[in-house]
Prior knowledge:
alpha+beta
Amino acid sequence: MTRYTATFLDPIPQLTLDTTDRTALAERVTEHAMPYLRPVVERLGRPELSGAFFHPNSDLRGGWFILPDLAKEQTVRFCPVRIEEQQ
């Protein structure tokens, strides 16, 4: 088991989790952040962004929330997250 700390932009509090599974990490980060992100994106007039999910980069040192737009063949990226492995 590896311990990770995810650091977000305000107003999302930091998250510490133990996992060995990349998918579980992404799901947990999404579950943790969305209650804080949802009101923000709604106030900004972008309620569709509340359907986004966290996508970590290949080395698990960070990532972004993304929302694919299949019709436009584009991806919206927002809210970067820094991930640090704890020793």
